[in-house]
Specification:
With 313 residues, the chain is of the alpha/beta class. The chain has one domain: Metallo-dependent phosphatases (Purple Acid Phosphatase, chain A, domain 2). The chain has 8 helices and 16 strands. The strands form 4 sheets. Strands 3-16-4-6-8-9 form a 6-stranded mixed β-sheet, with helices on one face. Strands 10-11-12-13-15-14 form a 6-stranded mixed β-sheet. Strands 1-2 form a two-stranded antiparallel ribbon. A hairpin with a 2-residue loop joins strand 14 and strand 15 (282-286). It is globular and about 60 Å long. The chain starts with 11 loop residues before the first helix and ends with a strand. It binds fe (ii) ion. Fe (ii) ion binds at residues 98, 100, 128, 162, 164, 248, 250, 289, 293.
Length: 313
C-alpha cells in the first residue's frame, strides 16, 4: 500500500523508514543495537513451547494457566522525576503493553472492563498488538478500536511498534486515531513547560540507527523514552532521558514461584525484565504486559495495565 496514494500524511522520512522496515521483516535476521543474529526465530524454543503446552494439558493445568492469563490487574505506581516541570506534577500515564489481542479469547473484554473507570492524562501502547504475525492486520483492528474507545485519556493514545508488529500497523492504527511514534518525538505543553515523549521502532528484531538518532535528537527538558524492550536503556540514559517505559518480556509469562522469569527474550539488560529499575540517573519500568504469546497461559505472573502517576521531585 502506498501511503501517499492513500492521502496519508507520511513524510519522506517515514517512507524511507517503511522501506527499510519491510526489508528487515522479509529477512530472517535479528537486528539488535549491538549485533545482528543470523536467525530471528529459535526453532528449538517453539518445540519446547509445544511440548510444555502438551505437558500442561496432560497434567490438567492448561485451563488454570488460561484463567491466570485472563486475570489481568491494574497496577498503580508513582514515579518521582526531579526534572518534571511542576505543571506536570500528578500527570497520569496509562501504559498498556503487549496486548496480543488475538492470542487469548476474552482478553479484549477484560481490558475494556479494567480501563473503563480510569481517567488518564495520556495513554501509551508499548508494542506487540497481535499474536498471529502473518495474519491480515484487519483481524485485530476491531478489538484495538474497542479498547481505544474504552480508554479515557485527555491527550489521546500514543503507540510504538513491537517485534510482533509489521510496518503496516502504523498506518492502520493511525486510521483509528492512535498517534504512532516511529523514531519520533511528541511534546506536550502546560503553562509554558514541556514534557517530551520519544518513541522508537522495536530494537529487539528491527534495530536501525534511526532509533538511536531519534533518542539523540529529542529536545532538552523532561524526556520519556518509549521503547518496546529495555534493551536500549543505556542509549536513552546517555541521551538524558528521565523515564523509560518498556514491555516485551510479559514478565516471563511462565515464571518461577516469586515471579522470576525463566525466559526474558532479551539479548541484554535482562535484569530489567520486569517492574521498576534504574539505569544511571534514569528510571525504567518494564510492564509485565497485558496479553500472552506462544501459549495462552500465565503462571506466577499476572498481566497488567499500568497507571503511572508522575511526581515532580
Ligand atoms: Fe509481547
Amino acid at each position: 500500500m502506498n501511503p501517499q496514494k492513500d492521502g496519508n500524511t507520511y513524510t519522506g522520512v517515514r517512507q524511507c523508514w517503511r522501506v527499510r522496515r519491510e526489508q528487515l521483516e522479509r529477512g530472517e535476521a535479528k537486528h539488535t543495537p549491538v549485533r545482528v543474529y543470523r536467525r530471528r526465530y529459535l526453532r528449538w524454543f517453539d518445540l519446547a513451547v509445544g511440548t510444555f503446552g502438551r505437558a500442561l494439558r496432560l497434567a490438567g493445568l492448561f485451563e488454570r494457566g488460561r484463567r491466570n492469563a485472563l486475570a489481568i490487574v491494574l497496577n498503580e505506581i508513582t514515579i518521582e522525576i526531579g526534572a518534571l516541570p511542576k505543571a506536570f506534577d500528578g500527570f497520569r500515564l496509562l501504559q498498556l503493553s503487549d496486548l496480543h489481542v488475538d492470542g487469548l479469547p476474552g482478553l479484549k473484554d477484560a481490558i475494556c472492563r479494567l480501563v473503563a473507570p480510569i481517567e488518564a492524562d495520556l495513554c501509551v501502547f508499548t508494542g506487540d498488538y497481535c499474536e498471529q504475525v502473518t495474519a491480515p492486520l484487519e483481524h485485530i483492528l476491531p478489538d484495538i478500536k474497542a479498547i481505544t474507545a474504552a480508554i479515557s485519556s485527555r491527550h489521546g493514545v500514543l503507540a510504538i511498534l513491537g517485534n510482533h508488529d509489521r510496518a503496516e500497523t502504523v498506518e492502520a492504527f493511525e486510521g483509528l486515531g492512535i498517534k504512532f511514534l516511529v523514531n519520533e518525538t511528541f511534546s506536550l505543553e502546560r503553562e509554558g513547560a514541556r514534557l517530551h515523549l520519544t518513541g522508537t521502532d522495536d530494537v529487539h528484531y528491527f534495530y536501525t540507527d534511526a532509533a538511536r538518532a531519534a533518542l539523540a535528537a529529542a529536545p532538552a527538558g523532561c524526556k520519556i523514552a518509549l521503547v518496546h524492550s529495555a534493551e536500549f536503556a543505556d542509549v536513552a540514559a546517555e541521551n538524558g532521558f528521565h523515564l523509560y517505559l518498556a514491555g516485551h518480556t510479559h514478565g516471563g509469562q511462565v515464571s518461577l514461584p516469586g515471579g522470576m522469569p525463566i525466559f526474558t527474550h532479551m539479548t541484554r539488560f535482562r535484569r530489567y525484565a520486569r517492574g521498576l529499575w534504574r539505569h544511571g540517573q534514569m528510571t525504567g519500568y518494564t510492564s509485565l504486559g497485558v496479553g500472552v504469546s506462544g501459549l495462552p497461559v500465565r503462571f506466577n505472573t499476572r498481566g497488567e495495565v499500568v497507571l503511572i502517576t508522575l511526581r515532580a521531585g
